[in-house]
Amino acid sequence: MRAVDLIIKKRDGKALKDEEIDFLIKGYVQGEIPDYQMASFLMATLIRGMNLEETVALTRSMVESGKQLDLSFLPGPTIDKHSTGGVGDKVSLALVPLLAACGLFIAKMSGRGLGHTGGTIDKLESIPGFRTALSLEELLAQVREIGCAIVAQTPELVPADGKLYALRDVTGTVESIPLIASSVMSKKIAAGASSILIDVKCGRGAFMKTLKQAKELSRVMVEIGGRMGRKVTCLVTPMEEPLGQAVGNALEVKEAIETLKGKGPRDFTEAVLELCGELLFLSGKEKSPEEGKERAREVLLGGAALKKFQQMISAQGGDERVIADPWRLPQANLRWIVSAKREGYIKTIDAFKIGKAAMVLGGGREKKGDPIDYGVGIGLRKKTGDQVTLEEPLAILYVNNRERLEEAQDLVEKAFSFSEEPVERKFKPLARISNA
Ligand code: URA
């Protein structure tokens, strides 16, 4: 077999056999196929697509490129959760401890932020002392002990994804349904959980801009999971405006803590409860997602999830005093108010622009490896549907470097659009696709 023949085959729109896909992935991971050939193959795939059989074969080869976790020793249902990424998406910070407080076991591997989207690992690292680089043994021991852990992706699991994703990032080949589906599902399958929930973000702040694309991606991921023996539910949720009010690492940790105290923003709280309800159903703990959501609400309001978050922070070396006193998290030294230049109702808040503004302030990275300023970000004072009067604060910018203020302020001002008429706000997922 030669890589060039397989590139030509895909370029000409033909389907590849399982062994051909395996040859490409193994060869690439072992360094026998160079970046330029893999980049060409990825572009051919982005343009020509892959059928389901090919996408399943790709996922399987990626899973087999590294170690796979065996979670069968844990004394309860094992679950996992993934989000395709958005702005202000701090769901894992609150959801993971809530799931553990409900009696489920979760060894969550998360990523870092890139571009306008944030990453759970960066957010957790804003907690003084918090360790995200646990060994696999430490990870499993912690999950057995307290039910949950959130760690950085390890190259021991699915090394093919780390290499392919870095190449896709710089060759314009991220936005492909088979490539995204295999990337997400290979990591979830290798991480060993039997029930998997995927939050597929849809809208201007997400990879999937339309509901049609988001549903198609969901169908492919659910099918892959089913064929590989996993229960999978995809919830398509909106990412037009940022989730919650806080965008920025320490600000988002603070908001997650407030939410676990029962005082979080409504959209974020509902999103966390909805996802928890689905996982309680998927793992067989509750009879329906609705009953799961009610159970999740009881556990959250009872305070057990907050305690679990504190336990997780402490187990991973972080300063657990941030729970009682979130002001111990890194702070910015300047607050700048962006106020309304007209009155009316908020029609939309462009998540992409808000995410970009947070990055400009230093809260995110333009390229891999850039340093991060944990204290900066944006606090939204108004959300879609809210009424505003002239000069009312729309958002607060948390700033350390004044030179970046003007650009960020401009982005935040432009992110808001207004309507004369009242605007309805929706909290429900846009679609649910499941094999359970
Ligand atoms: N998230 C992933 O893990 N992989 C992709 O390809 C896109 C989003």
Please outline what is shown here.
With 436 residues, this protein is α/β, with parallel strands linked by helices.
Describe this entry's structure for a reader.
With 436 residues, the chain is of the alpha/beta class. The chain folds into three domains: 3-49, Transferase, Pyrimidine Nucleoside Phosphorylase, Chain A, domain 3 (Up-down Bundle); 79-325 and 430-434, 3-Layer(aba) Sandwich (Pyrimidine Nucleoside Phosphorylase, Chain A, domain 2); 330-419, Pyrimidine nucleoside phosphorylase-like, C-terminal domain (Aldehyde Oxidoreductase, domain 3). It is 45% helix and 15% strand. The chain is built from 16 helices and 13 strands. The protein has a four-stranded mixed beta sheet with strand order 1-4-5-13, sandwiched between helices. Strands 6-9-11-7 form a four-stranded antiparallel beta sheet, with helices on both faces. A three-stranded antiparallel beta sheet has the order 10-8-12. The chain binds uracil. Residues 84-85, 174, 179-180, 183-184 line the site of uracil (URA).
